[in-house]
Amino acid sequence: MLILGIETSCDETAASIVRDGEEILSNVISSSLRYHKRFGGVVPEIATRHHVENIDRVINSSLIKAGVDIADIDAVAVTQGPGLVGALLSGISCAKAIAYSLDVPLLAVDHVRAHIYSALMGQNKVEFPFIGLVVSGGHTRILLAEEFDRFTTMGDTLDDAIGEAYDKVAKILGRGYPGGPVVDRLARKGNSRAVKFTCRPVDNGLDFSFSGIKTAVLYHVRSRGSRLRAKEVSDIAASFQESALRVIVKNCLKALERYGLKTLVVGGGVSANSRLREMFAFEESARGIKTYFPPRELCSDNAAMVAGLAYRMHKKGVRAGLDITAVVR
Length: 329
Ligand code: KG4
Ligand code: ZN
Fold this sequence. Notes:
The chain has ten helices and ten strands. By secondary structure, the protein is of the alpha/beta class.
């Protein structure tokens, strides 16, 4: 079964053709990142305009790269949310039009769950239930996954998402946007014990809060007054990262223990982080758990994960009507 996936929830206009939920025939992404850079974050109007202007070209290109004619598409899948309302609606409207004109099923996919699925493509062995972790620019969420259409949120951020915290810390340190890859790189050269930044789980549960540590980084940098030396910048990056990621790992282990599970599936932009992967690799051998991460090219927003998860939903009989709209949160 060939599914055309469409993803427009934030700043990536993406389309992909996936066969049977596993085989990625094409994965085309046009990012508007360069237009947001000077604002230090995503500007919704700019992102939406980019989707509207580029979506036809991106879909065409995904068909050509896959060597597939549009008439061969068996279903159309689209990200319904969460995301920016205008951005989501541009993808949803396009998906509806294609599904209607081809007279094929439409599937509405949750972006957060799709991030988890990106770690499972090509991994037939994964068994339910498992704990999912999504760490991205918009989310820091722990989910209990019982089936491809049954996910329950167990922990969430009460303020900033982890990726957002990375972006803000990079900004405080005078580095570019997006900050995640920059802080990741800086931290490798730094001493994570140089500065004490605390980040704790909220109320001992599975929720997160990252606004406190972000502010602590800001105050620390301000207290240093004059320009920071390169070594200090790396030390701050490493100290922030270690403390923020530690709480994520801790909460995931807590969730696994609470539900008596051994499998953790991670997705989202921050799942590309080298230290996070290292921390989980350590826990994997220390505790006999199994962790799944997406390949680097599927960590960030893409449409292959949308088409992939849609296939699993389709097999369970899930369909969307042509009256669907964006689900922002
Ligand atoms: O999943 P994603 O592409 O978009 C959202 O759904 O939000 O995630 C983007 C986020 C950005 O905040 C970016 O700074 C972060 O992922 N990111 C990283 C790394 N690569 C991207 N954060 C930490 N370490 C990285 N290597
Ligand atoms: Zn995302």
